[in-house]
Amino acid sequence: MSNKKCVCVHELTADEKEKIKNFGQILDDYKGKPGALIPVLQIAQKMIGYLPGSVLKMISKGLHEPLAKVYGVATFYHFFTMMPRGKHLIRICLGTACYVRGSKEVLAAFKKELGIDVGGTTADRKFTLEIGRCFGACGLAPVIMVNDDTHQRVKPSKIKEILAQYK
Ligand code: FES
Question: Domain 88-164 classified CATH 3.40.30.10?
Protein backbone atom coordinates (compact mmCIF):
# COMPACT_ATOMS: atom_id res chain seq x y z
CA MET A 1 0.00 0.00 0.00
CA SER A 2 1.31 3.40 -0.94
CA ASN A 3 1.58 6.25 1.51
CA LYS A 4 1.03 8.88 -1.18
CA LYS A 5 -1.64 11.45 -0.43
CA CYS A 6 -4.11 13.09 -2.73
CA VAL A 7 -3.75 16.79 -3.52
CA CYS A 8 -7.42 17.67 -2.96
CA VAL A 9 -6.12 20.39 -0.68
CA HIS A 10 -2.76 21.33 -2.07
CA GLU A 11 -0.06 23.86 -1.58
CA LEU A 12 1.49 25.75 -4.43
CA THR A 13 4.92 24.57 -5.45
CA ALA A 14 7.80 27.06 -5.79
CA ASP A 15 7.59 26.60 -9.55
CA GLU A 16 3.87 27.43 -9.55
CA LYS A 17 4.45 30.53 -7.43
CA GLU A 18 6.97 31.76 -9.96
CA LYS A 19 4.58 31.08 -12.85
CA ILE A 20 1.80 32.92 -11.03
CA LYS A 21 4.08 35.91 -10.60
CA ASN A 22 4.77 35.94 -14.34
CA PHE A 23 1.08 35.52 -15.07
CA GLY A 24 0.36 38.59 -12.91
CA GLN A 25 2.41 40.69 -15.32
CA ILE A 26 0.44 39.39 -18.30
CA LEU A 27 -2.84 39.99 -16.47
CA ASP A 28 -1.93 43.68 -16.25
CA ASP A 29 -2.13 43.91 -20.06
CA TYR A 30 -5.76 42.77 -20.00
CA LYS A 31 -7.02 45.19 -17.38
CA GLY A 32 -9.99 47.17 -18.61
CA LYS A 33 -10.33 45.13 -21.83
CA PRO A 34 -13.87 43.85 -22.45
CA GLY A 35 -14.31 40.10 -23.03
CA ALA A 36 -10.95 39.30 -21.47
CA LEU A 37 -12.12 36.73 -18.91
CA ILE A 38 -11.97 33.53 -21.00
CA PRO A 39 -8.70 34.39 -22.80
CA VAL A 40 -7.11 35.29 -19.45
CA LEU A 41 -8.27 32.00 -17.88
CA GLN A 42 -6.83 30.14 -20.86
CA ILE A 43 -3.50 31.93 -20.51
CA ALA A 44 -3.38 31.22 -16.78
CA GLN A 45 -4.10 27.53 -17.26
CA LYS A 46 -1.53 27.24 -20.04
CA MET A 47 1.12 28.92 -17.92
CA ILE A 48 0.39 27.25 -14.57
CA GLY A 49 -1.17 23.97 -15.73
CA TYR A 50 -4.43 24.50 -13.84
CA LEU A 51 -6.36 27.31 -12.15
CA PRO A 52 -5.56 27.60 -8.43
CA GLY A 53 -8.05 29.54 -6.27
CA SER A 54 -5.47 32.28 -5.67
CA VAL A 55 -5.21 32.85 -9.43
CA LEU A 56 -8.98 33.07 -9.81
CA LYS A 57 -8.95 35.75 -7.12
CA MET A 58 -6.17 37.60 -8.95
CA ILE A 59 -8.19 37.50 -12.15
CA SER A 60 -11.34 38.70 -10.39
CA LYS A 61 -9.45 41.64 -8.92
CA GLY A 62 -7.45 42.38 -12.05
CA LEU A 63 -10.42 42.36 -14.44
CA HIS A 64 -12.91 43.86 -11.93
CA GLU A 65 -15.17 40.85 -12.38
CA PRO A 66 -17.10 39.29 -9.45
CA LEU A 67 -15.27 36.23 -8.07
CA ALA A 68 -18.48 34.18 -8.45
CA LYS A 69 -18.47 34.93 -12.19
CA VAL A 70 -14.81 33.93 -12.55
CA TYR A 71 -15.48 30.65 -10.70
CA GLY A 72 -18.64 30.15 -12.74
CA VAL A 73 -16.79 30.39 -16.04
CA ALA A 74 -13.87 28.25 -14.78
CA THR A 75 -16.22 25.46 -13.71
CA PHE A 76 -18.60 25.70 -16.71
CA TYR A 77 -16.07 24.89 -19.43
CA HIS A 78 -14.67 21.36 -19.28
CA PHE A 79 -11.26 22.45 -20.58
CA PHE A 80 -10.60 24.43 -17.42
CA THR A 81 -9.42 22.58 -14.34
CA MET A 82 -8.92 23.84 -10.82
CA MET A 83 -7.01 20.76 -9.76
CA PRO A 84 -3.29 20.32 -10.39
CA ARG A 85 -2.47 17.69 -12.99
CA GLY A 86 0.17 15.03 -12.67
CA LYS A 87 3.14 14.73 -14.99
CA HIS A 88 1.66 11.44 -16.22
CA LEU A 89 -2.00 10.91 -17.04
CA ILE A 90 -3.27 7.38 -16.44
CA ARG A 91 -6.59 6.52 -18.06
CA ILE A 92 -8.34 3.23 -17.36
CA CYS A 93 -10.81 2.08 -19.99
CA LEU A 94 -14.19 1.20 -18.53
CA GLY A 95 -15.78 0.51 -21.92
CA THR A 96 -17.80 -2.70 -22.18
CA ALA A 97 -15.06 -5.01 -23.49
CA CYS A 98 -12.56 -3.83 -20.90
CA TYR A 99 -15.12 -3.84 -18.12
CA VAL A 100 -16.10 -7.48 -18.65
CA ARG A 101 -12.42 -8.43 -18.74
CA GLY A 102 -11.60 -6.87 -15.40
CA SER A 103 -10.85 -3.17 -15.85
CA LYS A 104 -12.82 -2.40 -12.69
CA GLU A 105 -10.30 -4.46 -10.69
CA VAL A 106 -7.44 -2.74 -12.55
CA LEU A 107 -8.88 0.65 -11.62
CA ALA A 108 -9.22 -0.41 -7.97
CA ALA A 109 -5.58 -1.54 -7.96
CA PHE A 110 -4.40 1.83 -9.35
CA LYS A 111 -6.50 3.75 -6.83
CA LYS A 112 -5.04 1.69 -3.99
CA GLU A 113 -1.46 1.89 -5.22
CA LEU A 114 -1.55 5.64 -5.88
CA GLY A 115 -3.74 6.49 -2.90
CA ILE A 116 -6.04 8.66 -5.03
CA ASP A 117 -9.53 8.47 -6.51
CA VAL A 118 -10.62 9.03 -10.11
CA GLY A 119 -9.84 12.63 -11.05
CA GLY A 120 -7.17 12.83 -8.35
CA THR A 121 -3.48 13.62 -8.56
CA THR A 122 -0.76 12.25 -6.31
CA ALA A 123 0.83 14.73 -3.89
CA ASP A 124 4.14 14.49 -5.73
CA ARG A 125 2.28 15.59 -8.91
CA LYS A 126 3.51 12.56 -10.80
CA PHE A 127 0.23 10.85 -11.63
CA THR A 128 -3.36 11.85 -12.39
CA LEU A 129 -5.95 9.05 -12.59
CA GLU A 130 -8.92 9.17 -14.95
CA ILE A 131 -11.28 6.76 -16.65
CA GLY A 132 -12.04 6.43 -20.36
CA ARG A 133 -14.75 4.83 -22.49
CA CYS A 134 -13.09 2.70 -25.18
CA PHE A 135 -9.73 3.49 -26.67
CA GLY A 136 -10.48 1.51 -29.82
CA ALA A 137 -8.37 -1.48 -28.78
CA CYS A 138 -11.14 -3.73 -27.42
CA GLY A 139 -9.46 -6.93 -28.64
CA LEU A 140 -6.62 -6.24 -26.22
CA ALA A 141 -8.86 -5.60 -23.19
CA PRO A 142 -8.45 -4.57 -20.50
CA VAL A 143 -6.62 -1.54 -21.83
CA ILE A 144 -5.14 1.45 -20.06
CA MET A 145 -3.29 4.46 -21.39
CA VAL A 146 -0.46 6.29 -19.70
CA ASN A 147 0.04 9.55 -21.57
CA ASP A 148 0.10 8.34 -25.20
CA ASP A 149 1.24 4.78 -24.38
CA THR A 150 -1.26 1.95 -24.60
CA HIS A 151 -0.91 -0.94 -22.18
CA GLN A 152 -2.90 -4.03 -23.08
CA ARG A 153 -4.27 -7.03 -21.18
CA VAL A 154 -3.47 -5.28 -17.94
CA LYS A 155 -3.83 -7.21 -14.70
CA PRO A 156 -3.87 -5.74 -11.19
CA SER A 157 -0.65 -7.66 -10.50
CA LYS A 158 1.11 -5.65 -13.26
CA ILE A 159 0.31 -2.19 -11.86
CA LYS A 160 3.61 -1.65 -10.03
CA GLU A 161 5.59 -2.72 -13.07
CA ILE A 162 3.71 -0.24 -15.27
CA LEU A 163 4.10 2.64 -12.80
CA ALA A 164 7.83 1.96 -12.46
CA GLN A 165 8.24 2.85 -16.14
CA TYR A 166 7.14 6.41 -15.41
CA LYS A 167 9.00 7.13 -12.17
S1 FES B 1 -13.75 -1.10 -24.44
FE2 FES B 1 -11.73 -0.71 -23.74
S3 FES B 1 -10.65 -0.34 -25.57
FE4 FES B 1 -12.67 -0.65 -26.22
Answer: yes
- C-alpha of residue 72 to centroid of ligand 1, in Å: 34
Per-residue model confidence as pLDDT tens for the chain (167 residues): 444 544 445 678 888 899 999 999 999 999 988 899 999 999 999 999 889 999 999 999 999 999 999 999 999 998 898 888 888 999 999 999 999 999 999 999 999 999 999 988 898 889 999 999 999 999 999 999 999 999 999 999 999 999 999 98
Q: Where are the domains of the chain?
A: 14-76, 88-164
DSSP result, 68-86: HHHHHHHHHSTT--SS---
Ligand 1 pocket residue status of 93, Cβ below 6 Å: yes
Among 114, 118, 117, smallest CA distance to 126 is for 114
Q: Is 143 in the pocket of ligand 1 (CB under 6 A)?
A: yes
